[in-house]
Each structure stands twice: as structure tokens, then as C-alpha cells.
Amino acid sequence: MTAARVEIVQGASPQDAVLEFAQAVVLGLSDRPRWTPARFLYDADGSRLFDKITDTPEYYLTRIEADLLEEHATAIARFTGPRTVVELGSGSARKTERLLSAYTRHYGPVRYVPVDVSEDALQRSATSLTRRNPALSIRGLHGTYDAALQELAPLSPVLLLFLGSTVGNLNQTEALGFWRQVSGSLRAGDFVLLGVDLVKDAAVIEAAYNDAAGWSAAFTRNLFARMNRELDAGLDLDAIQHEAIYRPDWRRVEIYARFQRRQTLNVRPLDHELVLETGARIMTEISRKFDLADLGPYLESLGFEVVHAFTDPRSWYALLLLRRGRET
Ligand code: AVJ
């Protein structure tokens, strides 16, 4: 009998977590353009809302990735051999299940280490996964990628999953730091399975971030509901409009919350007040889109060998199997 267990990597107390959120809000909203780190979108409600986005007809990313995983799970498991599977930003881990069952089918018991900033999502996914596949032994890590990556070395041989094009949330500077950190935490011969959304027609991309049912807007608005809940911010959520624009020159979607009325944002834990004028915009996340012709050489230059690139017939999305080389 394997029990799902959630371990706190960072050891951050709930009070520390609120303080961290408060500091990030003050820092980002005092900057121009105003911004907030994307990870704060994923509290328990945010993680649930994100799952709703993935079910919309417009959000093609998750469906294509799930199909690619389904189609190539066996080949991936055979190619890498037995591994501890670590997943950054596991969320509900719905699509990971297919890959994990390929591993347990081939190799018997498999250790799975999901990492997420939502403890609720970790708890729910670990419970449902172990129930459906008793050959999984799960140790969830609640925390940021930084903290989790420091735990990687003793888990080798590892397959590190970074799916959903979550890497697209990182700007160029953050991505470079991230890949250096990943490379430093893995051993030669470890694998990474990376999911990336590819450059395509702007209308297709914009629709995915502006679904007709309004889940994308609800997801953006939840960040401010979280500010109300945790920071006692006192915001009128009805005054917040969701804006998602694809900028082809930057190959990225920029997502903003626009304030249609002047608001005062209280950051109670820091005893601080911020004014948002009518029309003020806060960038809540970016979602970069990738070109395989550029991404391959980029990753190779950082010490990752691209051993396979799986794509769908329209080349809308790619799954890259990378191997960490001898030296970086
Ligand atoms: C989870 C970061 C991959 O960028 O497509 C989707 C987040 N935000 N719709 C993405 C998101 C609004 C998503 N990632």
C-alpha cells in the first residue's frame, strides 16, 4: 500500500507565504509597466480555474499535448529506461497519468515527484493518481521550482517533466536562469521532457487566451480576488477587465488586468497602499511561443541534447525529449 504524502520543501509557513505575496505585489505594482509574478495565479481557486481553461474549445495546448503524450508514452519510457519522474508545475497532473502508466507497465513500481505551488492541487492529484495506479509511489513537493530543483541530484536517474508550455511564462532572462539551474541540478544522462507551444496564426493564439466562456478572464480576475482574501486589498473585482494580446514581434501573449475605475489597493500585511488610476494595467503573465528552429540550438548551447521532437501534424505544439550532456 503506497500512501500519497505531501512534503513541504520550502518549509514556508502560511504567514510567510502571505508576506511573500504582499511583497511581490508592492514590488511589481511600484514598477512600470506594472506586473506580478505568474506563480501567484495558482492558488487553489486559480488552479481549478486553469483546469477550466484547458477544457475550453479555444485552448488547444493541453489537448494536443495530451495526444502527443498518449501517442509517444511508450517510446519515451523505452528510450529513457527506468527513472524517477519529477514534474515541475504538476497541477492536476491529468495528462501525466498516461506517461506514468507507460513507466509502470514497463518497469513496475515508479517514483513520481510532483512539484507545485498549490498544495491543494498536489494533494488532490497525488490522491487520485495513487488510487488509479498503485505502482506509483508519490512524494509531492510544495514549493517553487528553485527550491525543488535543489532536491534533484539524489533522485537521479531522473526524467524531469516541464509540460504545458509553462516555460513560456518565463521571460528571456528568467528562462536563461532557469535552464542554467536545471542543468546544474541534473546529472549527465538525465532527461527532460519539455512541452512548448509553437508560433502560429495570431488569431488562433489570441482566441486561446480569450475564451468565449470567460474562464481566462476569471483566471486573471482571481489574482485580485486572492489579493482581497490574503491582503485585505479591498478591490472591486467588477472594475477589472482581462486583456490578452499576442505580439508577434515578441512571440508572446501578454496578459493584463485593466482597471476601469480608480482603485486603492491595500496591502494590509505591509501596511501599504497603492493607487491604481482609471485605465491602469497590470501585466499578470506572459506566454511565450516558440520556434523549433531557434529553440533546438538554444537548448543545445545550454548543454541539452534534443534527442526527439514530437509534434502534431499542424506543428502547433511540440514535446521535446532532452538529454543533459556530459558538461555544460
Ligand atoms: C500554464 C503558463 C502554460 O501560458 O498558456 C493560460 C497559462 N494563462 N491561459 C499558458 C494560461 C491563461 C498557461 N501556462
Report the mean per-residue pLDDT as an integer.
Answer: 94
Task: Please count the helical segments.
Answer: 10
What distance lies between the first and last C-alpha atoms, to the nearest angstrom? 41 Å
What does the radius of gyration come to?
20 Å
Global outline: globular
Structural class: alpha/beta
Record keyword descriptors for this entry:
328 residues, alpha/beta, eight-stranded mixed sheet, four-stranded mixed sheet, 10 helices, 39% helix, globular, binds N,N,N-trimethyl-histidine
Short description:
The protein has 328 residues and is an alpha/beta fold. Helices cover 39% and strands 27% of the residues.
Structural features, described:
The chain has 328 residues and is an alpha/beta fold. Helices cover 39% and strands 27% of the residues. Bound molecules: N,N,N-trimethyl-histidine. The site of N,N,N-trimethyl-histidine has 12 residues, from α9 and β12.
Topology overview:
Layout: E1 5-8, H1 14-29, E2 34-35, H2 44-54, H3 60-80, E3 84-88, H4 96-107, E4 110-116, H5 119-132, E5 136-142, H6 145-149, E6 158-162, H7 172-185, E7 191-197, H8 202-208, H9 215-231, E8 240-247, E9 252-259, E10 263-267, E11 272-276, E12 281-288, H10 292-301, E13 304-311, E14 317-324
Parallel strand pairs: 1-5, 2-12, 3-4, 3-6, 4-5, 6-7
Antiparallel strand pairs: 7-14, 8-9, 9-12, 10-11, 13-14
Helix pairs in contact: 2-9, 3-4
N,N,N-trimethyl-histidine is lined by residues 53, 61, 164-166, 168-169, 209, 216, 219, 285, 287.
